[in-house]
Amino acid sequence: MRRIRQLKLNTRSIFFKLLISFLVIILLFVSFNLFSLTFFRQSVRDELIKYNDTNMSNTTHDFEEYFQLLNSIIVNLYLNKNLRDSDSASIDYVAANHVIDDLRNTVSNPRFYLNNLFVYDIKHSLILEKARGASPEAIFSQLYTNPGYTYDFWKREFAQKVYFKMYPAATFTEAPNLSPVSQTGLVFPLMIKSDFYPDYMMLAFIDTNRLYKAFHQSINDNFYMLDNQGHPLFSSDSTSRHQLPVLEPGKDWIKENGNYYFYKKGEVTGFTYVNIVPDAAISSQIFHLNMTLIALLVISVLISIAVSIFFSMRFNNPVKKIVDSIRHFNEKNTLAKHTNEFDLIKENIGFMLKSNQDAHMNLEKKTSLLRYYGYMNRLKRIHGDPDEIHASDEMNQPFRFILFQLTFKMQFSQDISEEKERATYYIREYVNQAMGKELNDAHTFQIETDQILSIVYINDQTQQWMEVLNTIKHVLATDKDYFFFTIAVSDLYEHSSEQTSAYEQVVKLIKHRPFDDETRILYDEDVKEESFLLPGTMEQEINVNLQEGNDTLVLQTLRRVLKQMIKKEVSTPVFYRFAEEITDKVQRMLNSLNLETNQVAGSAKSIRLMHTTQELEQYFEMILNEAGRLIRLKKEEHDPIVSFIVDYLQDHYSEDITLDLIAGKLNITGGYLSTYFKEKTGTNFVDFVNEFRIKQAVHLLLQTDMKIQDIALQAGYQTMSSFNRIFKKYLGVTPSEYRRNNIQLGERTSAY
């Protein structure tokens, strides 16, 4: 009974459960492998057959490509200039020698696998080959001979109307002049003729062994090549000739007499290629594969069992100690006891971890809050309790301040303005995690609604903190459609007493960021105390044109000023002051004329929400268009003559308009009309007409794809020279330059 009880307790132990689990997994693994081995045995045989069939396909493809290449090379010989030069009534020996040189070069090319190449000149009864030229009788009877390929044999073959024919491989005897007799080895004779050149025939002798070694892809040497009629051309095994079985239609291989016969027929030559693989070879491969897999399976099972016992014991020992420790600490029975070790560990460890986590979170929260107040007191120069101040001095070592200034764009305010607080919270948490994960003792907290401050203590991590900062910049820049950041980095300070100076430095850096909407990292060397004064001539030009209501010219001048400011890299506050000064100038001008300024004043509230020169240009365009319209209306109001001229221009500006023409319609003299119009509008009649026409031309340049010549006619200018001259007078550039510049800037709206 005691043994049964002990055995029952042992079966509940972690060691026994782990060991049984491992053994079950091993059993499943073995069962699966045995099943797979049995199930896929036939598949292995099929794969081996498929492998040999693929090799046969590749071999056939290579042979066919070679014969196609050789045919092209030999056909090209018909076009050989030297061969054409030898085509005369008598033999041209110079040309013949050149042909011999060409044949020698072709034969010597190892890619062609040629032993020799003959050109049979029927007209002169002459054969040219790589070393000589001679009569057909001499060549086939003395110099290049084989009992089966005599001169009479070739004479009959040459007479046949066959243009591409391969003959069975044979060995020829070479007897070159002044050299000992030698054997060529096994070669394929290949005859090629052409209807276009009936006086010549080509006879190539292909080195069979080199060709076979280059293209035959199989571990078996039983390879056959048959011609179109099924007659053998070549056999790799000259001692054992196989009787090839008849292949069933639609099949590529057949098994017979203990061998696999793989057939492939060439698409170019029509030759049949046969590879013979003994069944014993495939069965041997399958047997070796089976034995290898079984051996690996046995070794794997033995290793798995040993590893299972080892890890079960290794895991059981510490777990047993943990269980003993839990039972020791749980003497007061605050938690229920369990016979199952896992349940006991789970409940007790979970309880202890939760208690420890609660205590740790409570302590961390108080410490973080104390540190935050300590930093804020020091940054804001608030004197507090000495112990509280000491909390911010815990890291008395070199440090840097990194201030993140968050700036929301108008797009964010329009789309998800109510999410600003949540967005700022998530950004602060990301910066906090990114800094704390890579940099030891880095502290991050929010000091304003749009400012996040990180304190980085430098401890041989100079390059590391820069890499982390660049990574943060890259992540923050991904949402550039809604907001951007200015990241200011202070100098390296040695003592925590300098934290106020570090904070003042990063705040100063923030104020001197470039005027754009890109996320940037600023260092002290990036701050340029660059002041900008508006040139006196430009200021006078702005005042004069604004007074006259010429908003077009004022806007053109402002654009030039903005370009100069960008070139000088002035900071954002300078851009804002400039925009506010222009706004104030417009308001004072309107006030002096007793005109309404509410729209200009309302628009001025959005200056600080602009972050690019494009936004400033749009702002200037809006207030100047309105101001110019009001000023011009002021000058034109209650004057029937001026109103008539404006209306007539609106309807007939593309026609020929002169001062005398308008005066005649009003029944007054041209001199009186000129003086009157100048007095009422402050502009000469001709200048007023040209300005009106240029406005229409600008609209057509930006809003249509019309040709510039057509736009000139549409605007009332009969010649391109007068149109270019007047356009450049008002806008400073030619019409084509104006269209190109505005398209490059992406501006598809008129500047007027």
Tell me what the structure shows.
There is one protein chain. This protein is of the alpha+beta class and 752 residues long. The chain has 27 helices and 18 strands. The strands form 3 sheets. Strands 1, 2, 3, 4, 5, 6, 7 and 8 form an 8-stranded antiparallel sheet that branches. A 5-stranded antiparallel sheet has the order 10-9-13-12-11. It has a 5-stranded mixed sheet with strand order 15-16-14-17-18, with helices on both faces. Strand 7 (182-193) and strand 8 (200-207) form a beta hairpin. The longest helix is centred in the middle third of the chain and has 51 residues, at 279-329. Mean pLDDT is 78; it is low at 382-393 and 746-752.
